[in-house]
Amino acid sequence: MSRKIGILGGTGPEGSGLAYRWAQAGEEIVIGSRDVQRAVETAAQLRARMGSSAKIEGADNPTVAAQCEVVVLTVPFSGHAALLKQLKNVWKPGTVVIDTTVPLAATVGGAATRMLGVWQGSAAEQAAELLPAGVSLAAAFQNLGAELLSKEEPVDCDILVCGDDERAKQIASELAGKIPGARALNGGKLENARIVESLTALLVGINIRYKVHSAGIRFTGLLIKH
C-alpha cells in the first residue's frame, strides 16, 4: 500500500536522519518545516546523497499534516505544544502520529541531562491532549540518537513503542524495523512514555561521560517471534 510519511521538524538532525533511513527502505517521505524553503532544501540534500530514486520532498508543516497518512513529530519540546495547536484543524481522521519528542531542559537553555516537568506527565501525553479525535498516537524513537541515524551502518538500539492505540503502535514498530539494527519492543501504555523520555537524558549523560555519541538501549533475554 502506498503511503506518505510526513516528518514535522524534518530539517533537524533527528528528523532528517529518520527521513534518510526510511527513504533508504523505500518509503515516500515529506519533510515538514515552518520554513518551506528549508524543507525543500533538506529534501534536495537527501536526494543528492541517496540518488534520484529517493522519494523525498519538502513542504510546510500544515501541508505535511494534511496530506500524510503517518506523521512523525521531531520538533524540540519548546515548540511542541504550539505546533500541535496550530495544526489542530488540519489533521485528517485516521492519521497516525508518532511522537519522538523529549522534554529536555536544553530546549529552554538548561542542561541536556535534565528533564523538564510536563503537566501531563510526558511530551507524548501532552500530544495526546492536543490532538483531535480520530487521530491516533504512539510514542517512539526517543532514545535513538541523530548521529546514529545519519550514518550508513546499522544502529545498535531497541526502540520502545508506547501507546494506547494498537494500530499506531504497530505502524511505529514497523517503521522501527525498517532501520537496520533497530528492534521494536512494546513499551506498554502511553503513560510509560514518561519513563522512556527520561532515559534520553540518562543516555546524554552517558555519552558525555564516556566521550561517545552512540550510546543506545538494549534489553536482553528476549526471544521475539516475527
Describe the structure.
The protein has 226 residues and is α/β, with parallel strands linked by helices. 37% of the residues lie in helices and 18% in strands. It has helices at 13-24, 36-50, 61-67, 80-86, 123-130, 146-150, 166-177, 193-210; strands spanning 4-8, 28-33, 56-60, 70-73, 96-99, 136-139, 157-162, 182-188. The strands form two sheets. Strands 3-2-1-4-5-6 form a six-stranded parallel beta sheet, sandwiched between helices. Strand 1 (4-8), helix 1 (13-24) and strand 2 (28-33) form a beta-alpha-beta unit.
Which secondary structure elements does this structure contain, and how are they paired or packed?
Elements: E1 4-8, H1 13-24, E2 28-33, H2 36-50, E3 56-60, H3 61-67, E4 70-73, H4 80-86, E5 96-99, H5 123-130, E6 136-139, H6 146-150, E7 157-162, H7 166-177, E8 182-188, H8 193-210
Parallel strand pairs: 1-2, 1-4, 2-3, 4-5, 5-6, 7-8
Primary descriptors:
226 residues, alpha/beta, Rossmann fold, six-stranded parallel β-sheet, two-stranded parallel ribbon, globular
- The CATH architecture is 3-Layer(aba) Sandwich
Provide the domain count.
1
| Uncertain stretches of 5 or more adjacent residues | none
C-alpha-based Rg, rounded: 16 Å
CATH class descriptor:
Alpha Beta
Mean of residue pLDDT values = 94
Q: What proportion of the residues is helical, as a percent range?
A: 25-40%
Quick recap of the structure?
By secondary structure, the protein is α/β, with parallel strands linked by helices. The protein is 37% helix and 18% strand.
